[in-house]
Amino acid sequence: MKKCFLLFGTLIFLSSCTTPEAVSTARMLGGSSQALLYMGCRAVSGTSVEFEFSQAVTIKRLIFEPEISIASIEDGSTVKVTLEESAEPGSLITVDLLAEDENNNSINVLVSFRARNSRMPGLIINEICTEYSKPKTEYIEFKMKTDGNLGAMRVIIMGNTNSSSQTIYEFQPVEVKENDYVVLHLRTVDENARDEYGINIDESGGSNASASARDFWIPGSSKLIHKEAAAIYVLDQSDDVLAAVMISSDTNPWWNKDYFAEAANFLFSRNAWLSPDGQRGGPADAVRSTGTTNTRTICRDETAENTNTRADWYVTVTSGATAGRPNNPNRYSN
């Protein structure tokens, strides 16, 4: 099974056409000195894709891989392509496109993007393990609130070692059901680790792998999350925040960094993370991660309504980690 790879240095506002596996090349052919530029693309719906250029163009060649039948092409600076049928939600598609403007400037573009997924499930971030204890890896657990497909859903971590967000994982298409658990392991140290995109959700080995949940693994052995300070959030293809949490071991100093204030502003603007009084969350409003270990994880209270605040969270007791299973309700007392 092909894995999704890391993409570092990605901005918070991500293009719908940008993926960890995306390839985009453009080659100019003849014409005048006025440059014809390819600006990007986006999957508008399951049957509609748009390609942006710096000026009006006529499409001379357009080939999709895997092959997809084209119903119509509307030329212009925004080329609107209508497909005969919808592609699999969130599936990776490669396009070979040749366009020409009125001055006979031609541009050949090769780009990969993910098909529009209008069936992303409602979900919450449910448990976070920030500490590594070989061979037990850090992980983020998600709980599905509705049925849906995870294809093209992106998981972001902003940590205390970087000044911009990171797309650490983008899901390939896979169907999930309400109340399913999904565990994203944040490094791979066991050769038996398997991404569970198929029917069998018990095929993955590795420590912390769950027999009752889908397990997915970030390639490599680098540490991607730190309990001192982190913002974790999930984006759809329109950059809407589906779930978010901010954690901190104390109220400073990492929260003095501009990029954490920007993350708080970003999540507040989308009503995804709030202070208890409904304002923009700050360091005092983050979930306190003090005392966490590989077996004492940060857990959501699954019996309480989601308020998008630190009131939803607690640190579970020693040996209380429950990757892929309901959270242990017993709370750690420092």
Précis, in short:
This protein has 1 helix and 20 strands. By secondary structure, the protein is mostly beta strands.
Could you walk me through the main structural features you see in this protein, from its secondary elements to its overall organization?
It contains one helix and 20 strands. The protein has 334 residues and is mainly β. Strands 1, 2, 3, 4, 5, 6 and 7 form a seven-stranded antiparallel β-sheet that branches. It has a six-stranded mixed β-sheet with strand order 15-14-9-8-19-20, with no helix packed on it. A five-stranded mixed β-sheet has the order 12-11-16-17-18, with helices on one face. The protein starts with 23 loop residues before the first strand and ends in a 19-residue tail after the last strand. Residues 1-16 and 18-22 have low confidence and may be disordered.
List keywords for this structure.
single chain, 334 residues, mainly beta, seven-stranded antiparallel sheet, six-stranded mixed sheet, 4% helix
Q: Low-confidence spans: pLDDT under 50, at least 5 residues?
A: 1-16, 18-22
Global morphology: elongated
Kindly, what is the distance between the CA atoms of the first and last residues, rounded to a whole number of angstroms? 43 Å
What does the main sheet amount to?
7 strands, antiparallel
Assembly status? single chain
For the secondary structure, the number of strands is 20
Q: What would the average pLDDT be, to the nearest integer?
A: 86
Backbone structural class: mainly beta
Helix % is under 10%
- What is the percentage of strand-forming residues? 35-45%
Gyration radius (Cα, Å) is 22 Å
Number of DSSP helical runs: 1
Along the chain, the helix and strand elements come as EEEEEEEEEEEEEEEEEHEEE
